[in-house]
């Protein structure tokens, strides 16, 4: 209507059409909705052993101090990480989860008219942060369930500002190896930022897996991100980091909020770094789980993507229906519709007991499928 005005500020179209990130469902929410108890959550790649006991003790000691602002420079944690990684502390950027560092890379380098490149099967957050800054997300086709680094390199244009790669990738659990990575990195122009997301690097056993930190001096735009959310079991506190050039780290430090990493997160992460026993136990558990699930899939005749992380993507058929049926049996997994894997679910490895329960539930659900369960739902 002529002369009429929108009521209130106009939300930009790119934000209105943005599909929000759909996290794994909290146990409490599912149980309230279904009226069940004793559920297990294998949906968000968390550590089933919980947080490090050293981190818990440090948190307890720190609680009475939360009326104070945290150290804005997180000096204690940064120095400790730097020593551990063998890098200059000024090259480390801490974030409210490594997700914040992914976002900072986009805010710093990309805007309207710029392209942000990633594999079509990559972690959804890359798309979200690109759209949030008004840049154009560009997706390269994967090779099966793996990033195709050649296909990514071929899609670099003069407008490409940032490339995201995940190693291992979520939700596929796949990795790329040194040769592929080195060939790719050499093809990326020096003024393009390469974000190498290593959220699951601790779980990888492959000898040819490249350690991103070792490549920092080979490409001036490399940002390697890691997190305390996965192996360290601190997802609820939100803390991760990036390691990059002095220049990029300095720019990110200007852009971030002054107290982006809270006091408890700093304290817990610092203590968790010392907890070798917890890290080793967590790795061992994941190795056992990989075996356990792989045998179960073989027995059930299911195709799973070979995984290098603490979760597995498996083809069950009718992923959403299978997820729902498992939910009713007290097992929370993740449907993969958002990634276009409609026939798959992603299952996070649990403790031995949790795995066994989940395997039994999956077997029951898929057994029912022939009697009108999820397979019938797929036909609807
Ligand atoms: C879990 C995950 C992260 C970590 O996110 P945080 O913000 O550190 O909790 C980053 N990248 C990928 C691919 C992940 O799966």
* Overall pLDDT confidence: 95
- Tell how many strands the DSSP assignment holds: 13
Percent helix range: 25-40%
The number of helical segments is 14
Q: Element order, helices and strands?
A: HHEHHEHEHEHEHEEEHHHEEHEEEHH
Structure overview:
- With 380 residues, the chain is α/β, with parallel strands linked by helices.
- It is built from 14 helices and 13 strands.
- Strands 2-8-7-6-5-3-4 form a 7-stranded mixed β-sheet, with helices on both faces. It has a 4-stranded antiparallel β-sheet with strand order 9-10-13-12, covered by helices on one side.
- α4 runs parallel beside α10 and α5 runs parallel beside α6.
- The protein is globular, with a radius of gyration of 21 Å.
- The chain starts with 12 loop residues before the first helix and ends with a helix.
- The C terminus is likely disordered.
- Bound molecules: pyridoxal-5'-phosphate.
- The site of pyridoxal-5'-phosphate has 14 residues, from α5.
List the helices and strands and how they pair.
Layout (H helix, E strand, L loop, with lengths): L12 H4 L10 H8 L5 E2 L11 H10 L12 H11 L6 E4 L2 H12 L5 E5 L5 H8 L3 E5 L8 H6 L5 E7 L11 H10 L5 E5 L24 E6 L12 E4 L2 H10 L7 H11 L2 H25 L2 E2 L6 E5 L3 H10 L2 E2 L1 E2 L8 E5 L3 H18 L4 H6 L1
Parallel strand pairs: 1-11, 3-4, 3-5, 5-6, 6-7
Antiparallel strand pairs: 2-8, 7-8, 9-10, 10-13, 12-13
The chain binds pyridoxal-5'-phosphate.
């Amino acid at each position: 209507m002529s002369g009429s005005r929108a009521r209130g500020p106009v939300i930009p179209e790119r934000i209105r059409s943005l599909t929000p990130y759909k996290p794994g469902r909290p146990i409490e929410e599912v149980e309230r909705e279904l009226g069940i108890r004793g559920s297990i959550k294998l949906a968000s790649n968390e550590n089933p052993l919980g947080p490090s006991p050293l981190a818990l003790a440090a948190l307890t000691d720190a609680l009475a101090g939360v009326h104070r602002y945290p150290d804005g420079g997180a000096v204690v944690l940064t120095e400790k990480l730097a020593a551990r990684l063998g890098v200059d502390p000024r090259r480390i950027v801490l974030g409210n989860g490594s997700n914040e560092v992914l976002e900072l890379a986009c805010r710093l380098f990309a805007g309207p008219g710029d392209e942000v490149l990633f594999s079509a099967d990559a972690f959804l957050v890359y798309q979200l942060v690109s759209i949030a800054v008004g840049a154009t997300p560009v997706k390269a086709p994967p090779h099966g369930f793996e990033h195709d680094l050649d296909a990514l390199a071929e899609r670099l244009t003069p407008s490409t500002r940032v490339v995201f790669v995940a190693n291992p990738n979520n939700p596929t659990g796949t990795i790329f190896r040194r040769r592929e990575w080195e060939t790719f990195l050499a093809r990326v122009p020096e003024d393009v930022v390469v974000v190498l997301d290593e959220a699951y690097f601790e779980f990888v056993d492959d000898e040819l897996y490249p350690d991103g930190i070792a490549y920092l001096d080979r490409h001036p735009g490399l940002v390697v991100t890691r997190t305390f959310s996965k192996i360290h079991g601190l997802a609820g506190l939100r803390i991760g980091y990036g390691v990059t050039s002095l220049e990029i780290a300095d720019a990110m430090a200007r852009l971030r909020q002054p107290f982006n990493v809270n006091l408890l997160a700093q304290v817990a992460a610092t203590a968790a770094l010392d907890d070798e026993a917890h890290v080793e136990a967590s790795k061992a558990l994941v190795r056992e789980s990989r075996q356990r699930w792989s045998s179960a899939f073989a027995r059930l005749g299911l195709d799973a993507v070979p995984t290098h992380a603490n979760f597995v993507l498996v083809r069950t058929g009718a992923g959403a229906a299978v997820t729902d049926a498992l939910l009713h049996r007290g097992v929370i997994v993740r449907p993969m519709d958002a990634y276009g894997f409609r026939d798959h679910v992603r299952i996070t490895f649990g403790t031995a007991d949790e795995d066994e329960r989940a395997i039994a539930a999956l077997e029951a659900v898929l057994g029912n499928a022939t009697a009108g369960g999820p397979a019938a739902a797929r036909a609807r």
